[in-house]
Amino acid sequence: xxxxxxxxxxxxxxxxxxxxxxxxxxxxxxxxxxxxxxxxxxxxxxxxxxxxxxxxxxxxxxxxxxxxxxxxxxxxxxxxxxxxxxxxxxxxxxxxxxxxxxxxxxxxxxxxxxxxxxxxxxxxxxxxxxxxxxxxxxxxxxxxxxxxxxxxxxxxxxxxxxxxxxxxxxxxxxxxxxxxxxxxxxxxxxxxxxxxxxxxxxxxxxxxxxxxxxxxxxxxxxxxxxxxxxxxxxxxxxxxxxxxxxxxxxxxxxxxxxxxxxxxxxxxxxxxxxxxxxxxxxxxxxxxxxxxxxxxxxxxxxxxxxxxxxxxxxxxxxxxxxxxxxxxxxxxxxxxxxxxxxxx
Length: 344
Description:
By secondary structure, the protein is of the alpha/beta class. It has a domain at 45-146 and 182-277: Rossmann fold, CATH 3.40.50. It contains twelve helices and eight strands. Helix 1 packs across helix 6.
């Protein structure tokens, strides 16, 4: 039986003099697979990610997504903002659906019923471990809005410590709101599927995000990318600040940016933001953290410092001092609550 070679696309990596700079890059493709007309909230981080992801992948792409914000807001009234094939799946089946799409194209190519390049297959996270384990040729993306936003802002395993949600409100018994730190999902994917390309990114660094999309698609086999995508409704911030938050979460160490190299079986922590900030500068922009007391902010700073140390970054004295509650002030809402409590 004759061997049939699959013609693969190789997407070029974009050049950038600065990984986080905001500037016009003439190398960006002109096509827009994700167009205006959707019904997401103003400042929606996941929709920004969708546009960057699809733009990096190009027109020869198939998008697959389970039920969630980006399904409900992107398919209302029998119309969608996609210029490329898109499929909605049930919450638990996007990984298996994607496996089937990739396998179907491989079968069509073997039978001579499909000619041309193998399409990019991008899946928004669902039943992902099986697809990664079987090493299907696809890119699985988790847009990380740190909560269950579509159903009313409930806490999830990615909700950060101290984050207020409808399921984790602050009160006298639990003043910090959420007591647990977020699950390190991307690192779990790398540890459990070391043959896959795994990376993290943020909408605050568009060139880095788009390059990692292309690296994941160029990789032969399965790839996983987790992207920080702020949610204006759940985080409670000023609408134009989505990109600012996407940069500040990296600059304060709460969202490490890295790549897992499946060939060398090691992490690459070479990405560095231009500056390092205390976590209080990031927290104070969001209403979901407005209740925090000094000890809670110091606890979050300790967590961020551990993240920096994990990446081999030396801590400046200011961040070491910020991990001591004596050097931190309460958030404004916590101060107001304390005054009211005195009168009760």
